[in-house]
Records
---
Amino acid sequence: MKPRSVLLTTLLVGLATAPTVEAAQNTVSGNYRVDAVMTEGGALLQGPAEVYVLDAGGEVVARRHAVPAVFDLGTGDFTAAVVYGHAQARGAIELGTKPGNNPLNLEAGEVRLDLITRDGKRARLSDVSWRVYRYRRTEDLGTEVAESQVKRPEFILDAGWYEVVVRQAGASDSPPTARHVIEVESGRRQTYNIEVD
């Protein structure tokens, strides 16, 4: 299973198994617009994303492929969920708010990764494989959340700590070319230069 589908499955399972809290859901009907931001007070996002509306039982009742997303909902209790890059957010649907006044906060950041040599020059490796894992304080890797085969990948990730593993593409059994811990901060765009021999 690819990391993106794992993220989506985790989000949907989490929504379906979340305890029902009366204050977290509202009985609504009518048009509803789902907006999202990278961080509290940030600019509203526009563009490709996966946007879902789930009913009180956790079933997906509507889906769009960009934010903002507008849904025509019948009467019921609904939750909105957004997956943007490898970040996700969810919240109760509240009708009657003006568009953009109640966006889902992804609490996410953007990360660009690059390889450099010990003397600070851009590494000339070709065909590299990047894998991003949740950071664990052990030698074992955490859950994989993203992967890429491009030379200088960019990821949108939930705020937190991650471990990046770089290998020559197709060499999944060999030791990593580089392994580095990074921090993703909400609303920030960061570049990490990872040193290789």
---
Amino acid sequence: MLQSWSSLDQDVAIDRVTTIIAHWLHFPDREQYEPQAWFTRHLVDRLGIEALLLPAAEHGVQQLNTFVLNQGYNCRLTRQRIDDWAITHLWAHPIRSSKTEEQVILEKITAHIVSLYPETQIMIDLFTPEGEREAAQIQPLLDLLCLVHPLLDDMERQIDIPHCSSKGYHVLSLLKERVLEDGGPYSSNHILTQAGFFSALIYRGVTHHTDFLQQQSILFPSLSSWVSLYKTLSANFPPNYSSRSVDHIPEYWDVSEQADLTSWLAKESPISFLDLCWKLREAEISAFGSLTTYLLVVNYTIAGEVQCPQPREMGEILWDIDAGGLKGLIKLGFPCRSVEETSQAFETVATMLSARLSEDNKLKMNFSVFLVEHLLCKLVRVGKTNMYKGAIKEMKAGFTLN
């Protein structure tokens, strides 16, 4: 007996001893009830403790093989299978959002049960300590990280990505690399010049996401340099975006000449992110709404020429843009009925997401408020298209981002 135990590795030995002690203490059968515990934990973490009040939750616990995993009765219930199911089905579940019909109905069911059985509220409070609900709310973002990087396999501890690309999590597209390369508008030689600012306006206002960036010059020292190049372009060049037009480019040159809009380029210390956003927004530059202005200022911030916004300031930006970032917060279940609530929600998400990532990986992925905003936007887009289902399959086949 001693010899056979000595041949076991440490993990196997601990597992067997744990099983023996559990039987000795009359704990529930591990093989039968442990999968139910995994399933229940996912429901609580992702949907909240109130989800356990739904009949479907009890039905799922009792019939994990067939009702949840849609497998046969003899299907082996492994942790990996249940984790995969939770990532696929729960992170975009409508109950997560505070404005969906499903969430409203669940709130009514919970209120009715509590009115009949007041002790239920005590149980809910006990199982939802302060901070735990917020931690559960950011779980979809962690799931999204899991989807886009197949090496995130431990969601209970700090996330570690052993082979995270040194170029950062948000890998730059070929087109954006051209804009940031030497000689481009954001290069060190041009970023604080009129030519650089003019060219950056053209990039964001006209040529972004077009073949033009791969085929033509991206720096224009003057309006005439643009006009000379434009004469050589094909007649169908203007991109098919309603708000973008080459007709705006003379206006962009005028903007680059206005001292009140460009004085920040010559300041010794970087301008505030919000100050620059509001300054450019008030100028009402053609094709530069809230989102395009934000993206323009982000590029200057990443280059170190604008102060990086604090999380609460980012909340103000998301409220003003009223697009994917705000929808992502709402999808996570945060009330965003005002700029104050939005700022608080974004700060909560950014702080808790930062706490769940290791310092090493935050450095590798260039973790910032901009990455958090980007994740919130992708959360909405991926949830709409159900891309995550295909992504999981590709992950298992060795899929990696490029």
---
Amino acid sequence: MAGETLDMSIKDDLVDFLRNGREIRYLNFEAFGYRFSPGQYAIIATEVEKGRIAVPDTTLLPMSSGAAASWKYGLNEFWFPSDADIPNNDAWRAFTAHEATHAVHDMLRPGIIARPVAEAIGYLAEAIARKVQKKGALTDKKGAVDPIRAEAMRVANAIWDPTGLHQMKVSDADAEAFQTIVGNHPHYVAQGPSVEYHGLED
């Protein structure tokens, strides 16, 4: 059934990344009034272990062809394709940082929020992960960088703390510019103006 975790290796890899990933140490930032810290990702790891957050077998689910990872808010599920290689592939680690940040944000129970804010926060976490990896923004199959990812990397560079010891904070001006770029992107325009993050329900 869809709610069962059938690929234990991906589940285990996710838990290990959320607790021990080198990128997680740097996910210590504030943006749009929300604060994120490494300990929150460890809580998500525990929720995955307990089964409160599922990592279902996506071969049984309507996952889009070529899709990367996804946090399914309302379902409390992480969706990964069967070839996701979190331990060894930096792109997958960045995707996972992005989606795990949505899970953390959901755990904070902000309620109904603007979709551009929610997505900008996920892309910022992804960009921070790429900086930890000493790599640039993720690209598409043609090598092009989406404007959202380019802006996320610009913001990550602006707030970057190479020590990982201090909370990085996005300025109001950068937050506004970032939110505008996400809000104008056709992909997110089509998805609607808001998302509902009501927490990890029992």
